[in-house]
Amino acid sequence: MLLKGLAAADIPEIRSTMLAAARHVALSDAVARMDVAVPGPAGAPNVVMRVHRPRGVDRPLPCLFAIHGGGYILGNYEVEDQRFDKWVPQLGVIGVSVDYRLAPETSYPGPIDDCFAGLSWIFDHAEDLGIDPTRIGMMGTSAGGGMAAALAVRAREVGSLPIAFQLLAYPMIDDRQLTVSSTWQNVPVWDAVSNALGWRSYLGDLYGTDQIPADAAIARATDLSGLPPTFISVGTADVICDENVEFAQRLYQAGVPTELHLYAGGPHGLDRRATGTDLSRRSRRDMLAWLSAQLGHR
Length: 298
Fold this sequence. Notes:
Helices cover about 35% and strands about 20% of the residues. By secondary structure, the protein is α/β, with parallel strands linked by helices. The protein has a single domain, classed as Alpha/Beta hydrolase fold, catalytic domain (Rossmann fold), CATH 3.40.50.1820. Strand 1 and strand 2 (about 45-55) form a beta hairpin. The longest helix has 17 residues, at about 280-295. The model has no long low-confidence stretch (mean pLDDT about 95).
């Protein structure tokens, strides 16, 4: 699905199309799936999450908390079903995907508050879920990557949510759009017009001001020290390429173990587009290898 030149009027139809596509994916019997509704932020609805667990495994397992992408305006937690159908048995993890509220109906801080509530609940109920609380990591794609990175900073400040690692695939992290790549319109999939719509929808009245908190756009954070080991992947044909490269540099300069994968010619969402190509296969293989290393697999 091409998401170039988006206007607000396009959002409902694209959401419907994405949901229908996610629900038509064939899944295996190797993974047990359960939806849970957990308390949301104060005054907000419950947060729905889907827990994916490998069948036949009773011991405590690591957890991978996933935040879906969609430019802050699109997507749903079901898009992670296919990924977890493969990764949960391969990695021996419990996968949890969160269904946060979307902009523009819910602007910042609602969506990230939902994710924080879900992540906090996982830590609080790790024993009940069969999760090893010392090995809870996060992953996010696009806007989900931006929120995962922001959650890592929140978790650091709270001190009671020890995130083990974070995988950020082409994370959407800078609302200012000041880099060269952020101006590109002649790129596949997601261009400067769509990127601006996503940020404008998410930030609401804050958009275009200097009052953007770090947990709204993590590129604005002044202190990146003490964050967990981080993986960042992005293609050079992606409007957010430059901000991802700059963020990776800032992380390792702050002493954070950081691995950056830059794919020549790769578009936004490269791991899920043209899945039969070598580039797409390589991006998925690199993510899986890094996660395996974080989990202590050989």
